[in-house]
Specification:
Shape: globular
Order of helices and strands: HHHHHEEEHHEEEEEHEE
Number of helices: 8
Structural class: alpha+beta
Helix content: 40-55%
Radius of gyration: 21 Å
Length: 330
């Protein structure tokens, strides 16, 4: 969860989305040749953001836990693997935004790609090093693998096509949690599922968007027209995508639905009443970067928001009760 929180902090202030204008170029217009003033402004801003984000993460996530020596942690299967796909999504999106920032400075395309891949690897790797020295977590080779997958999805497409035909996106429709009481196995006061969800995922939608795995879906959004010979039929819009999504539900703990209360109570949720399950989605989406516009501000905004899945009808297949159609899902 702290990985997605760090991503949003970086997203809101990344040099790909900021910087200083130089020369006669419009502020939002990418330079056609290398612009040193833009490049060093981005580098300075990026270094400051990296340092600030590292301090923020330590204060927000790690300070309350005892520090230990470097150690590893096997967390495969935790949160029904939503965390792992979150790593892939985060690494991919950081690379994509960093690449756009580098191209904005006029840096040559291949160098921009390698720089973006390095930034994605560095930022995600920093979090893993922090995890490795925290008693609560640990260094996860699985996290490194899924981080690398995200970087590879970005870099592989740039090398193969010089465009992103496969986008990674996220959505979150937070479920309504009931006041269902869960009684401690060792005696004590009950806790409602709603309270447990708020303790885990936060009480506001802003917190829930980056934390609540029960409402979150990670998407691979594919642009069909870019794969068809000659761009396919004329009636097929260049911005229309087909999206494959993954989610999970009824998760109130990392590996299982039991947790410890503030006074040592052991809460165990009835798996028969609230079984954990996985969800698979097929939906439509929009590649915002392919919407034609001559307005620089609008184009900038569309590119900046292209990591968010567009609400659309969806077909869901889950491991709890089979198939269902959702008229509008986000």
């Amino acid at each position: 969860m702290q990985k997605l929180a760090a991503f949003l902090l970086l997203l809101l202030s990344h040099p790909a989305l900021s910087g200083q204008d130089s020369g006669r170029l419009h502020f939002l217009e990418p330079a056609d040749t290398f612009n040193a003033a833009r490049f060093w402004a981005c580098a300075g801003a990026g270094a400051a953001i990296y340092g600030g984000a590292s301090v923020y993460l330590y204060e927000a996530w790690y300070k309350g836990y005892e520090l230990t020596g470097f150690h590893t942690f096997d967390d495969m299967g935790e949160w029904e693997d939503m965390d792992k796909l979150g790593h892939t999504f985060t690494a991919y999106t950081i690379c994509n935004l960093s690449f756009r920032g580098a191209r904005w400075t006029g840096l040559e395309r291949r160098r921009s790609m390698w720089l973006a891949a390095g930034i994605g690897t560095l930022l995600q790797g920093t979090i893993e090093v922090m995890d490795a020295h925290s008693e609560k977590w640990g260094f996860s080779w699985y996290d490194i693998g899924f981080n690398t997958l995200g970087v590879g999805i970005f870099a592989g497409q740039e090398l193969a096509w010089k465009e992103q035909r496969l986008l990674m996106k996220v959505s979150n429709s937070r479920p309504g949690y009931p006041d269902f009481p869960v009684y401690p196995a060792n005696g004590g006061e009950p806790m409602s599922l709603r309270q447990r969800a708020e303790d885990l995922y936060g009480s506001t939608y802003g917190e829930a968007f980056i934390k609540d795995y029960n409402g979150q879906a990670i998407w691979l959004s594919v642009n069909p027209k870019s794969f068809l010979p000659g761009g396919g039929p004329r009636w097929l819009p260049p911005w229309l995508n087909l999206a494959l999504g993954y989610g999970a539900g009824n998760m109130f703990g990392g590996f299982d639905n039991q947790w410890e209360g503030p006074n040592g109570e052991l809460y165990v949720l009835d798996e028969g009443a609230f079984p954990r399950y996985r969800q698979f989605y097929l939906s439509l989406d929009v590649d915002l970067s392919r919407i034609p516009t001559q307005k620089r501000g609008l184009r900038f905004l569309l590119n900046a928001l292209n990591w968010v899945k567009i609400p659309a009808p969806a077909l869901e297949v889950n491991t709890l009760n089979g198939m269902k159609f959702r008229a509008l899902y986000w």
